Amino acid sequence: MRKIGFVLMALAAAVMPALAQQRVDEKRPASKDGTVEIRNVAGSVRVMGWDREEVSVTGTLGKGTERLEFSSSGKRTLVKVVLPHTSQHVDGSDLEIKVPAASTVDVETVSADITAEKVSGALKLESVSGNVTAGGDPAKFDARSVSGDVEITAASAPGRAKSVSGDVTLKGVAGAVEAGSVSGKVSVTGGEVSGVELETTSGNIRFAGGLAKNARLDAKTVSGEVELILPADVAADFDLTTFSGEIINELGPPARRTSEYGPGKELSFSTGGGGARVEAKSFSGSVYLRKR
Amino acid sequence: MSHEPGAGDELGLVRAAQGGDLPAFEALYRSAVGLVYALCLRMAGNAALAEELTQDVFVRAWQKLPTFRGESAFTTWLTRLAVNVVLTERRDRGRRNARLALSDDLDAVAPPAPAGHPGTALDLERAIAGLPEQARKVFVLHDVQGWRHGEIARLTGIAVGTCKSHLHRARALLREVLGP
Amino acid sequence: MNCREVQALLDNLVDLDLPEGQRRKVEDHLKGCAGCRTSEARLRALLARVGALPRSIAPARDPWPGIVSRITAGEVIEHDFAGRGRRWYPLAAAAAAAAVLILAVSLVTAVLVGRERASRVAVNPERPDAAVGVTPASLELAQVQVTYAAARQQLLAALEARKGSLSPQTLAVVEENLKIIDKAVGEMQAALARDPGNRELPMLLVTAYRQEIDLLRRVTQLPSRG
């Protein structure tokens, strides 16, 4: 009798979604440079690179989660929080995932925040309303959110970071990067960058750093303000235009009007013998060139 | 309307379009749409259908562009694709009676007749459009496009002998309709 | 050979499609038969007229807008991540098509930048307002606008179709930011209308178009409950 009861209960537990939070602690072997795909709707995802050829998942699955899918095929490992098809309320799952450091990491969430550290492979991180944060030394990155903020601290990696209403912050940049937001702020700081493209519609743009020889710095906005903070001895050719904003220049000559009849201002000049190229264009926002 | 790109530009445009560059594809379209439309119009026998077919041809060309490897001129490849599209045109499009629709359509699109021969070109286009369907298709491919019977047979699925007899019939009918 | 046989072979003759033996027999007959010679001449005259037909005919209506519409509507199907592409089939296609637009827009931007720089150089430094004639950038811009309008329409329809599967918060953010971009586009278009010679505005407009398409594309690719 008791045995049957036990079996029935075990069966029941197997088919019903977790009624309470469940702890997770699983491991699987993985290629040292494979791909790890992580899918979690809500809660949080924290990815860390380590030196084992293993993917380890620890954390808690939220109430109502159907199960954790943790499987692998060839060089791909999948970590996915599976939710029931019914639209009953489900709590978020908080996962900490350790991956071989050279992995390519591909994370998608809806509201879960994403953090990735110590990964030296490529990072592809996407959320809808979650914040995306990454650090370490990835080979390249592609980080996006819709309403969340994106912050990448990644020495010398090329990549792209975008949000729609969130702020995008890139720190320690040295390579070729793109950062954009529609209404959020875009802020990039770095050493000597080689290629930076910044774009917003109404958000402000701020760049503080140096320019490598032949670097390109490109900032475009409609109504945001552009603030470029560069070393006083930078060697660059500047090309700044605004349709109806102001241009304030601490590095050289003042701007002149594009025509007697319109409000536009433009400024083309060179410093330090030229070399790098800086372009800033705005419609109604103002452009500020400042000395570091 | 058409701007003919040189061979070098054409390859450049094709490569760009293969990579997804829509303006490059549009440039190719502008230089070839007249050729394609002329083919569709003569093979289909009416302008409204020919316009739809022309659209189909370019939409298909966009999809198939990655398969073009430059072994022939782009227009040759495109023409072949166009013939394919015209020949596999689905019946459920609604068959329009070529003879009925013809006069209005051709008035709108036929080129002006050369001076001294009023109505000549128009008469010929009309006469071609009035041919029975299979004969018309074979005639256009052989006598207008310059294809050989072997190629026509392969693409249409009609036996070579049958092709030749369609051609014979088309030419005979045309001579009859057009007079001496 | 008699006339009936020769008449049957005239097509082959003019098409150079007769074996040597038959060809000679036909030509011998023709030498002595005025009736068949007339038939041959009429056939050649017909073929000459056909040869003189124009190679190209312009359609009465330009099919291009229809073509662009069908291309951007996703008659090109691309594969997205396994499962996702299949699940959002029409939307992924629209998103893929918009990717095409973004590429196209980047190319046009490059052209506009190139032209704008070239015309800058040509401007007389003594008289900066002596603009260099009608800006050729306006032609490229017009092309981009057509392509952008088509892609935008498709993507907005895709957004509409999946509104129910997006969270209200996300939807609110998306709609608010679309409004911001649309307002920006409106202001710039108005400015361009008042100042059509302006060389900078086309570029900024194109940037705004690209941002809008980017946003719409992103939304069509969002997972549900997003």
Q: What oligomerization state is this entry in?
A: heterotrimer
**Average pLDDT reading of chain B:** 79
Largest sheet of chain B: none
- Measured as a percent range, the helix fraction of chain B is over 70%
Span between termini of chain B:
35 Å
Strand portion of chain B: under 5%
Number of helices, counting only DSSP H or I runs of 4 residues or more of chain B? 9
Strands of chain B, total number? 0
Largest sheet of chain C: none
Mean pLDDT of chain C: 73
CATH superfamily caption of the largest domain in chain B: RNA polymerase sigma factor, region 2, helix turn helix motif
> Mind telling me the C-alpha Rg of chain B?
17 Å
The percentage of residues in β strands of chain C lies in under 5%
Q: Biggest interface between protein chains, with counts per chain?
A: B-C, 45 and 40 residues
Give me the secondary-structure topology:
The complex is a heterotrimer of chains A (292), B (180) and C (226).
Chain A: H1 2-15, E1 22-29, E2 35-40, E3 43-50, E4 54-61, E5 67-73, E6 76-82, E7 93-100, E8 104-109, E9 113-117, E10 122-126, E11 132-136, E12 140-144, E13 150-154, E14 159-162, E15 168-173, E16 176-180, E17 186-199, E18 205-221, E19 226-230, E20 236-242, E21 247-249, E22 256-257, E23 265-271, E24 276-282, E25 287-291
Parallel strand pairs in A: 2-6, 2-8, 3-7, 3-9, 8-10, 9-11, 10-12, 11-13, 12-14, 13-15, 14-16, 15-17, 16-17, 17-18, 18-19, 18-24, 19-25, 20-24, 21-25
Antiparallel strand pairs in A: 1-4, 4-7, 5-6, 20-23, 22-23
Chain B: H1 7-18, H2 22-44, H3 47-64, H4 74-87, H5 98-109, H6 120-129, H7 133-144, H8 149-156, H9 160-178
Helix pairs in contact in B: 1-2, 2-3, 2-4, 2-7, 3-4, 5-6, 6-9, 7-9
Chain C: H1 3-14, H2 20-31, H3 34-51, H4 64-75, H5 84-87, H6 89-122, H7 137-161, H8 168-194, H9 201-220
Helix pairs in contact in C: 1-2, 1-3, 4-6, 4-7, 6-7, 6-9, 7-9, 8-9
